[in-house]
TrEMBL record:
The keyword Kinase does not apply. One of its GO terms (molecular function) is oxidoreductase activity. It holds the Pfam family Ldh_2. This is Oxidoreductase. Keywords: Oxidoreductase. Belongs to the LDH2/MDH2 oxidoreductase family. InterPro entries: Mal/L-sulf/L-lact_DH-like_ah (IPR043144), Mal/L-sulf/L-lact_DH-like_NADP (IPR043143), Mal/L-sulfo/L-lacto_DH-like_sf (IPR036111), Malate/L-lactate_DH-like (IPR003767). It comes from the Bacteria.
């Protein structure tokens, strides 16, 4: 999240400024609409590291030629419940949302729709795509691998990316159940955000170039896997799950082989990122009505369970929806660098 002292701006104003900057950079109407949708989602639910602060980066990559300004997506059927989407090296949000649509089409027929994505780029918050499927009544999983920036457990070099895993499910008469988690302790964009704010990092989430843990965002060279110094083997293994689905099944780029997202001189060569989306139709299993009743009962039991003194039990998504309501009412906080870029 951004610092509480960051200025806040109305959602419509932020959306309009992001739209203007991406249009100036030459992004096609369809691809920039997808990017805006995903970035605004992230900024509203409090995932500021993957929200509108990425506008400047995307504009730079569009200008440098790494991102295709007018991608023509292609869909290749691979089986009764599987397909591949070719992103044409455009904004990754565009290909990812299309993959969800394809997954839903497949799931309506086959029960499941597994869709790989190739020749894509950074897609922002993976939860945006899991949510897109859940909002249409489908259980949805979305993941991507990214360039190496996370040490292995007991490792002293970058190996996996932050490699998010996102799941969402429809809930009757309520917003979806939503889990969106990096397999690193924090995402790299959180380090960059802390640098922008000149704010110390939490303990046990980042390390220097020689593998020593640090809280200084300016000295942080790599991230630690989820679980930190003591239990990072869990996060490191989960990061491999993202690579399995996103790179190995799609035949795209492995984490250590990516052109770096930040810091390199080359901003013209496409990165051939892979993503993966899995869509499941409850009707083809126990049935939509049975699933709806079950998840409603499950969440009621979860939220009603006993808590320790001063504690609060929350289901995945509860915090995000509360933060969304708050930000819609009070405005989206924007970090100083992004305020300047967007002209807010």
């Amino acid at each position: 999240m951004t610092d509480e002292l960051s200025p806040r701006f109305a959602e419509d104003l932020v959306r309009a400024r992001v739209e203007a900057r991406l249009a100036e950079a030459g992004a096609s109407e369809a691809s920039r609409a997808a990017a805006i949708k995903a970035m605004i989602h992230a900024s509203l639910v409090g995932v500021d590291s993957h929200g509108v602060r990425l506008t400047g980066h995307y504009c730079k990559m569009l200008g440098g030629g790494r991102l295709n300004k007018n991608p023509q997506l292609k869909v290749e059927s691979r089986g009764a419940g599987s397909a591949m989407v070719h992103g044409d090296d455009g904004l990754g949000h565009y290909a990812a949302y299309r993959a969800v649509e394809v997954g839903i089409e497949l799931a309506r027929q086959a029960g499941v729709g597994a869709v790989g994505i190739k020749h894509s780029s950074h897609l922002g918050a993976a939860g945006a795509y899991a949510l897109a499927g859940a909002e249409q009544g489908f259980v949805t999983f979305a993941t991507t691998n990214t360039d190496s920036m996370v040490a292995l457990y007991d490792g002293a070099q970058k190996f996996h990316g932050t490699n998010p895993l996102a799941f969402a499910a429809p809930v009757p008469n309520a917003r979806p159940w939503l889990l969106d988690m990096a397999t690193s302790s924090i995402p790299l964009n959180r380090v960059l955000l802390h640098r922008s704010l000149d704010k110390a990092l939490p303990e046990g989430v980042a390390a220097t170039a020689d593998g020593e843990p640090t809280t200084d965002p300016h000295e942080a060279d790599m991230l630690l896997p989820l679980g930190g110094v003591d239990y990072g083997y869990k996060g490191a293994a989960l990061a491999g799950v993202a690579t399995l689905f996103s790179a190995l099944l799609t035949g795209t780029t492995l984490d250590p082989d990516f052109i770096p997202m930040y810091g390199g001189d080359d901003i013209s060569t496409p990165r051939n990122m892979g993503h993966f989306v899995l869509v499941i139709d409850p009707d083809k299993f126990a049935g939509r009505a049975v699933f709806a009743a079950a998840i409603g009962s499950y969440l009621e039991s979860l939220r009603g369970s006993r808590v320790r003194d001063g504690g609060r039990v929350m289901a995945p998504g509860d915090r995000e929806w509360e933060e969304m309501d708050r930000r819609k009412a009070e405005g989206i906080p924007v970090d100083p660098d992004t305020v300047r870029f967007l002209g807010l």
